[in-house]
Amino acid sequence: MNKAMERLSNGIIKENPTFVMMLGMCPTLAVTTSATNGLGMGLTTTVVLAMSNLLISLLRNIIPDRVRIPAFIVVIATFVTILELLLEGYLPSLYTSLGIYIPLIVVNCIILGRAEAYASKHAMLPSLFDGIGMGLGFTIGLTSIGIFREILGAGQIFGYQLIPLADAAKKIPGYTPASIFILAPGAFFVLAGLTAMQNQAKMNAAKKEKKTNAMSNAEADCQGGCGSCGGCGTTFVESDPEVKE
């Protein structure tokens, strides 16, 4: 179970496909005009990732090495086709919004990459959780970008009007949407901004950890007392006038 949880956290945080590894940029930039589209694409990809990882791991000792990539693509395409038919039948509005990007999940580098790098070399349970973790990380990335683009570009979130819009004709004050954020350039702006925020948070965490480790090492070195310390000796010097002389 610890291994499974490690695979989940790896996909969501350490190796997030969107903000860390920068994979799957085509659907990331194209379909995230709204939070609903981002969530729908992310969850669809998650299901394909989890199921294809599970089946490829199950067949890893059966698939000949020389045809493994074509075999992986056949497995992935099977699950994508099933999900495409289900979306068309039960969620037609989402199916229409995502359009061509649903069948393009077949060639999504995240799915093929996890099949080759992990599922084909590990047991079923870790491979399943690896696919779920990577899929959830991808879903969080797409949904976050979609939320920011939808709020800034339309004042909405998941289709609900979050910020009242201005009406110049009726002289009603309110928010004037920055429509560029629901266009193609807006995806780049939001992705860059969220990636920069994440990198800054990681840098701050690394600095804090480095500082904590340095303090721990200093405490360990000073266990014998300042008289035996060959390091800084700052506290001892300042508190003993004879040493200053």
What's this, in brief?
This protein has 10 helices and 2 strands; from the N terminus they run H-H-H-H-H-H-H-E-E-H-H-H.
How would you describe this structure to a colleague?
- The protein has 245 residues and is mainly alpha-helical.
- It has one domain.
- Helix content is 67%, strand content 2%.
- It has 10 helices and 2 strands; from the N terminus they run αααααααββααα.
- The protein has helices at residues 2-14, 25-30, 35-58, 68-90, 92-98, 109-119, 124-154, 184-221, 234-239, 241-244, and strands at 156-157, 160-161.
- A two-stranded antiparallel sheet has the order 1-2.
Key descriptive features of the protein:
mainly alpha; 2 strands; 245 residues; 67% helix
Shape: flat
Strand segment tally: 2
Biggest sheet statistics: 2 strands, antiparallel
Unreliable stretches covering 5 or more consecutive residues: 233-245
Structural class, by secondary structure, is: mainly alpha
Strand content: under 5%
- Percentage of helical residues? 55-70%
Number of domains: 1
Q: Counting H and I runs of at least 4 residues, what is the number of helices?
A: 10
Order of helices and strands: HHHHHHHEEHHH
Estimated radius of gyration: 25 Å
Instruction: State mean pLDDT (0 to 100 scale).
Output: 86
CA distance, first residue to last residue: 62 Å
Order of strands in the sheet with most strands:
1-2
